Request: fold
Amino acid sequence: MSTQATVEMKGICKEFPSTLANDQVDFTAYAGEIHALLGENGAGKSTLMNILTGVLEQDKGEIWIRKKRVFMKSPKDALSLGIGMIYQHFKLVKPFTVAENIVLGMENVRVLNKRALEAQVRELSQEYKIDLNPFSFIWQLSIGEQQRVEILKVLYRRADILILDEPTAVLTPEEVKELFQTLRSMAKKGGTIIFITHKMHEVMEFADRITVLRDGRLIGTMKREETSEQELARLMVGREISTGRRNRENTVKSQEQLRVKDLTVLNDKRVKAVDGLSFQLFAGEILGVAGVSGNGQKELMEALAGLRPRAGGQIFMGGQDISRASPRERMDQGMAFIPEDRYGFALVPSMTVMENASLKCYRDSRFNRGGVLDYRGLEQQAREFIKEFEIKVGGPKSLVQSMSGGNAQKLILARETAREPSVILASYPVRGLDIKATESIHQILVKEKARGAGVLLISEDLDEIFQLSDRVAVMYEGKLMGILPIGQVTLDQIGMAMAGAARLGGEDDG
Amino acid sequence: MIQVMILATLTAAVAQGTPLLLTALGEIMTQRSGVLNLGLEGMMLMGAASSFMVLVNTNSLFLAVVAGAVCSGLLALVHGFLSITCRVHQIICGLALNMFAGGLSGYLGKDYNGIPAPKVLPSFRIPLLADIPYVGEIFFYQNGLVYLSYGLVIGLTYLIFHTQIGLKLRACGENPAAAYSMGISVNRTRYIYVVMGGMLAGIGGSFLILSTVPSWVENMTGGRGWIALAIVTCAMWKPAAAMAAAYVFGGVEALGYQLQAVSVNVSPVLLKMLPYLATILVLAAVSIGNQDKGAAGPEAMTTPFIPEDN
Reply:
């Protein structure tokens, strides 16, 4: 590895109206290394990188690129210095082709000559072994392929300092490996690779050096060989965190809570999204369903909750056929639903905590007398939720839109578990949350399971699947690729099943 | 006899369709950049009124067309300022401008009511092309603005789909955040195309008063701005398809006149209704036909872009 510092940021300070996002942060990255920038949500990682790419301007501090002091006003300036950013939410134009996205904004490409473009893109993709058809439309590509387009975009602009914001959040384990192979080959050519993450195992697997930020401050920079997952987790959070299993009680299969038989569901485009799927969910277990999102998980959960019509099959709850029951009837039977879209679906952001907390119990005779709501009672209930679930919010009358993702999710769980449900459908319950919030949400789910609820957990995060599940299933193209108890399944097996390459084995479910 | 009538109707279809086409071409650019301009009717009216006044006072057809383009361009600039810079709801803003322009053109034109135009745009033959049987008669014995519209259809098709300029234009309407991240000034781009769209609508208005209906009457555009708007959607934001659609609507209108001329016993009020009926039918057919592809147009249309959020 060369020792030439390509990026030096010294004493960076950045203040936003309510927070000090970066406080005297120093950061150095070298040519030829893969450097991980690790920290919780709100630790200031993105702010620091946005300053490095010209999106934000620092209040104080200096930036040196290849030993020269630079001043950047926009992403364009950063690009001309060879700094390229791969955003977490891709900035691609969906109805454009790969080639069109790559040359968008390039002033030296005046006319779109199909053949010349193809040659250029092919040359670039061969140089970095990135396989892409220049004339595919973005909407035809998988998420992993779209990310490769983003990488080609910055490579085409001859960037050799590459910053990736949470690049693995949406990828399968196989795609993650391919991504880091590409990044490694770029680093070998003298590139500087910086990636933002909060996943420890990725850092330990792929990074050369690691910089940890917490609450806007630099905690330290270290070499990978000289640290461990435990140490990184402690530095990141500021206290000990168990990275191991969170669901310790083993469950014996007992009472069946939910049974799904040959369920088929169509998606919005009227194509089969769930294809003849069957499984059972027992009391006191967490059934983790891994899989890349978009393989029918959303449609499955909506069909179970009664929000999407079935095209075929049956659903039983406590032995009773609820296939035709309305969402309200299913709720009354003891079903709770944690949807994937927190602010858009589970909550009404422009209403208060108290009102949101009441959305499920407003018909309850405790709060409703002949159509008139007992606001004092509802406020009392919201207060109890806030206390019991340690929700950080101004009070019952604060608006939900002011809450952080973790606190909003706690509010949803408080509301959904208030009536002691027998079945909990949880879709990506910790998506986008940081370690501390994730830990609290996981504790709530484990507590519910211990009480006797059956929890169906949909997740794309394999750490979460291994930390929580009693049994694991993998969903691929609308089918389950088998179900196995947690002790009998390996990460590799799940990875293969997620890619559709092999079944998990275990119980056959069609 | 029948042949002569069909030929006359088709020739009239191109002539009647051209103001619709010019206006629709402008709106295609505006919408592709991410702005919806519902004020086409008003822009056409302003274009017609200002053209007419300049024509009466200077007797110059060229200056008349320029005046139409400039006045409507200015009105579009107001739309741009309100919808891009002030982020006013674009539907409300466009509707308000329609009413404003309707009133303003009526006020400015009140002294010109009923005066016939001192001259109209002359039709001339394009050598060789005009000699092609039928086609020559229909397409190449028209006035200068018709020929301009042919050029625009070819030029815009090339510009939008085969150049970096077009790529940037479409990116601003589809995913402004992506365009911005690639160094494109989204709001400046939108201003340019909103103003150009307004100018073309103005020229569409000029065409109306300098050829189709050569005399100023208040609200003389009679809903053609709205038909142009429908053409943009029917044509899926493509210039060549807009040309075909404009001629269909122009043809329906021309057919109404032809039927009156041979005194078919139908109320002229009903005949005048034909283009609007056709609009509804074609829109319904296109929407049903494109249901799966989503005939929604540029994804970021009507969404203001705020650079700081991205």
